[in-house]
Design goal:
Elements lengths: L2 H15 L2 H10 L7 H21 L2 H23 L2
Helix pairs in contact: 1-4, 2-4, 3-4
Amino acid sequence: MDFITFLGLLAAALTTFSFLPQMWQTWQTKSAKDVSFVMLITFISGIFLWLIYGIILQSLPIILANSVTLFFNFIILWLKIRYR
């Protein structure tokens, strides 16, 4: 693995896993009132487009980061709808 790919994977891991505290807090408090629905939908749309972009480029860091980030944000969206 070259340095650029490693750097991309490290950046992907940090930005992707930054959603875990929000997801955990929403799950624990059963409250998502402070999470913006519009922000989630916009962000999920952008992440989906990044995923398509990564697939086209066949870039592992982009594909992995955006797949996991998309999954985490769908969970946050589900919690937002569930705890409305």
